[in-house]
Design a protein that fits this description.
Chain lengths: 198, 275
């Protein structure tokens, strides 16, 4: 698979990246974020299934791993390029079409709050074909439905190679559902994303 | 025109229909979340498109009432975010104690879990007996459940642990009576709570409050309605009164931010300035 050359989607460039992970997802996320250069131009929105009592320590941990600013957003935070936004524990994170983040404490989706589906579906509506969505390691099927929405809207959908994932259930579920455009290892995903704003 | 654009029109028309027919104004709600709810409701209905729901909303009140229930499912728990109740104990109640009578407005109380949490803290800090708590919500069904104060016993496991983290001085089990798999909150906690219907999107101010507790309600509103409600709160608070928001809600970018000083950054507690 060619991942080294910059990608241009037909008719324009990508505007945003969303990433979802659960069990084993953090390891892959670290590899991906490390690959992003300090002048990376796209916003990166991350849902990682956390323990509900996490009080921002996950965001701090990520911040120590990447050159990009990591933000645990408040409701209505404006989304800016070159920043990593991680969903706070116990809140769903949604993208509004006006370029801000919406939070919600509605019931769990796929037993999860934050839920990857909720982020991906709202991001697909906001960014359409200019969105890249990445689904990483995890032990449930959160994210499959959301990837489907991204794909239907014309966005690029990527799953971590289940052979590499610590927990293969999540990426495999999406692959089986036929909603994944590319299956890549974490390090390849990092390079692909880095090339997007190159 | 693509499907997404057409859906936007359908949703605009649906929200407008609800407003004109029933007076509930969801047009100023945060859009992504309300759209998600509508799509979900559609999936479980017999309608094949959002626009097909519109005539039903107009002519079938029961259909509408089911939809509204769906719009207002807010999930909360007893002592959600223990750090907030600890901050209320340590930074708010010592000052409220200096008033002879304390009026508290819990806006958007949903099914009541957090009203009882607050009542427990007020009792333990010896403010309860001179307090009046107005607990309001726009959803009558939620209010009924709040009034009953009966919760699944399973939900109370976390509550016990959370209670201890708030600096609780007693045993949490003193505050409820277990019966089979349900727990009824103790009647003494209800004595000074008045439950009432109030819709933040359309109704007026409540007077002379010393503390307004409104957590994870504003997140469902758009910026414009947020600002309107924050003005309503500002009008309803006495000088030196406190406002407690959800831990991910922030006054910083609102129109009223300069009228408040920050009391606790993590618990999102603010104090209305004197002038």
């Amino acid at each position: 698979m060619r991942v080294s050359e910059p990608r241009r989607r037909p008719g324009g460039t990508y505007q945003a990246v969303v990433i979802g992970g659960s069990a084993g997802g953090v390891e892959a996320l670290q590899v991906i974020l490390l690959a992003l250069p300090h002048d990376f131009m796209l916003p990166v929105l991350v849902v990682e299934h956390l323990h509900h009592s996490d009080d921002g320590s996950f965001a701090l941990h990520l911040a120590s791993l990447t050159q990009l600013p990591v933000i645990e957003p408040c409701d209505k935070t404006r989304i800016e390029g070159g920043r990593v936004y991680t969903a706070p524990a116990n809140y769903h994170m949604l993208v509004e079409r006006d370029g801000t983040i919406g939070l919600s404490v509605e019931e769990r989706v796929n037993w999860s709050r934050p839920s990857i589906d909720v982020l991906f579906e709202s991001a697909a509506l906001a960014w359409g074909e200019a969105l890249v969505a990445v689904l990483l390691s995890g032990a449930n099927a959160d994210g499959t439905k959301g990837l489907g929405t991204v794909k239907k809207a014309g966005g690029l959908t990527i799953a971590q190679d289940p052979a590499e994932a610590k927990s293969r259930v999540m990426p495999q579920a999406a692959i089986n559902a036929g909603v994944v455009s590319e299956v890549l290892r974490a390090e390849q995903i990092g390079r692909l994303l880095a090339a997007l704003s190159g | 025109m693509n499907d997404a654009k057409i859906e936007m029109i359908e949703i605009d028309l649906l929200l407008e229909t609800i407003f004109q027919r029933y007076g509930y104004d969801f047009r100023s709600y945060a859009r992504a979340s309300i759209e998600r709810r509508i799509r979900q409701f559609l999936a479980g209905s017999r309608c094949s498109s959002i626009s097909e729901m519109i005539p039903k909303i107009l002519h079938d009140e029961e259909f509408f009432s089911n939809l509204v229930q769906y719009f207002s499912i807010s999930v909360t728990e007893i002592f959600r975010d223990p750090l907030v109740y600890r901050a209320v104990r340590e930074k708010v109640l010592p000052l409220l104690k200096t008033w002879p009578h304390v009026k508290i407005w819990h806006a958007g109380c949903a099914t009541g879990e957090e009203v009882y949490s607050l009542a427990i803290v007020l009792k333990e800090e010896e403010v309860y007996d001179r307090a009046t708590i107005y607990a309001t919500d726009f959803n009558d069904e939620s209010l009924d459940r709040a009034r009953e104060g009966v919760y699944a016993l399973g939900k109370l496991k976390d509550a016990t642990k959370n209670y201890q983290q708030t600096g609780g001085k007693a045993s949490f089990s003193e505050y409820y009576h277990a019966h089979y798999d349900a727990a009824a909150m103790d009647g003494s906690l209800k004595e000074r709570i008045t439950f009432a219907n109030h819709n933040l999107a359309v109704d007026a101010a409540f007077g002379e409050m010393h503390l307004i507790f409104c957590r994870n309600v504003l997140i469902y509103f758009n910026r414009e309605l947020q600002n309107r409600v924050l003005e309503l709160f500002t009008d309803s608070l006495v000088h030196g009164g406190f406002l407690c928001l959800g831990t991910k809600e922030d006054l910083q970018f609102s129109e009223v931010s300069n009228l408040y000083e920050l009391v606790d950054a993590k618990a999102k507690i603010y104090k209305k300035k004197s002038t």
